[in-house]
Amino acid sequence: MNRIGVLIVEDHQVTLEGLTTGLSREADIDVLGAATTSDQGLEMALALKPNIILLDLHLPGSTGPKTTVKSFCSIDGAHVIVFSGENRMAFIQTVLSMGVAGYLLKSENVRTVADAMRQVMMGKKPVLSAELVSGETKVTRSEQEVLKMLARGMKYNEIAERRQASPATVRKQCELLLLKLGLESREQLIAWAVQSGYGNLELEP
After folding, report:
1. Is 203 contained in some domain?
2. pTM of the predicted model as reported, rounded to 2 decimal places
3. How far is it, in rounded angstroms, from Cα 195 to Cα 95?
4. 68 and 149: one domain?
5. CA 9 → CA 81, 83, 116, distances in Å?
6. What CA–CA distance (Å, rounded) separates 106 from 112?
7. pLDDT digit string (tens) for 63-80?
8. Could you report the per-residue pLDDT of 89-139, keeping only the tens digit for each?
9. Which residues contact 26 (CB under 8 A, 6 or more apart)?
10. What is the secondary structure of 85-121 as a DSSP string?
11. 29 within domain boundaries
């Protein structure tokens, strides 16, 4: 049995202890270490060379989620699985585009986290919490740009001008989004975009 070496980077002590204890009980998983800050996590990752880094996004000693993800994803041989309470699809899709191997919500139990690690080691990427799968797989990069503009209050003609397309093309793209997301009106689409975080162009610090 190939064993999976794991580094946990998490600043919430109760969550950290629960993960460490639970994952240590899995027959094929070795918890190599645990860090509570970004800097400590990076140092330990370089020294311990884990197969998996289970990473919280909001850590002391980091300049923000985007920088944190980039730093950990740059470590050779390590697969990064984000473990976060943030469930807005715009945020999650941005994180996934940066090369992480998975994104799990903190509502998941330890067994699900362990199974996700096994899936990553078997080559499945990205591994996502079940409730995120439908939203993540449906929206293309081009559609994300349209959703960002809708969430910021832009009209079809304004979006068309910004994207150098015709209003009819933008309208068709929005109609396709309605079908994909199971929505019925432009107003519902705008509300969905706002609630999903598409009004934020960057990850928050």
Report:
1. no
2. 0.73
3. 18
4. no
5. 10, 9, 16
6. 11
7. 788 889 999 999 999 999
8. 778 888 888 899 999 999 999 999 999 999 999 999 889 988 777 555 567
9. 114
10. S---HHHHHHHHTTT-SEEEETTS-HHHHHHHHHHHH
11. yes
